[in-house]
Give the backbone structure.
Amino acid sequence: MRTTIEILGKPVQVEWTASADRELQGLSEPLLVEMELYFSCLIRKAVRFGRAAQAGDFVLAGSQLKVGFRPVMTRVCRMSDVEGAPPLEDFPVVKPEAFVPKRLTIDYRQGEWTGEFSLSNTMSAVR
């Protein structure tokens, strides 16, 4: 399955596999999917699903699929000062639309949601 949504005025191509579509159809409410761009001492990309997705706004990508984007940063860069996962806060990007991903792929395998996003238009196709 494939659709194009708009986040912060930018098009995002969303693709999901047949197995993900079957799982989505069995849900009682839409699955929340967050594309997290993490700014810290390093930059990290992550895709979060369900309750772990905390983007402020979500866009409907299908009857059972909502997608959001959230740039975040750590409160501190000295990882030795942090036990466990570092505390996050929303990153006040001046032009967040410049960082909106171009593509998101979603799959459901072995009982778990997986996802990947790209800041360019090129990414391996979903099977």
In short: Residues 2-118 form one domain. Residues 18-25 form the longest helix (8 residues).
